[in-house]
Amino acid sequence: MTELPTIDWPTAVVFAPLAGAILAFAWPRRAAALGLASVLVTAGAVAALALQVLAEGAVLTRLGNWGAPLGIDLRADGLSTVLLAMTVGVGAFVSLGALDSYAPARADDRTRRYFWPLWLLLLTGLNGAFLSTDVFNLYVMLEVIALAAVGLTVLGGGRAAVRAGLDYMYASILGALLFLMGVGFVYLELGRLDFAGLIAAEPAPALTAALALMIAGLLLKTALFPLHFWLPGAHANATAPASALLSGLVVKVSLYVFLRLTQYMPLPDELLVTLIGALGAGAILWGGIQALRAERLKLLVAWSTVVQIGLIFVAFARAGQVGLAESWKAVALLILAHAVAKAGMFLAAGRIKDEVGHDRIADLDRSPIRPTLAQFTFALAAISLIGLPPSLGFAGKWVLMEGAMAAGYWHWVGVTMIGTLFSVAYFSRVLASFLRFDRMRSPVAEHQGWALADAAPLILALSALGLGLAAAPILAFMEIGYPFGATP
Amino acid sequence: MTSGLIFGLTGIAVFAIGLFGALVMVEPLRRVLALKLCSVGAGFLLVVGAWREPPEAPDPVPHALVITGIVVMISATAVALALIRRLHMLERDTDD
Question: How many domains is chain B partitioned into structurally?
Answer without folding.
Answer: 1
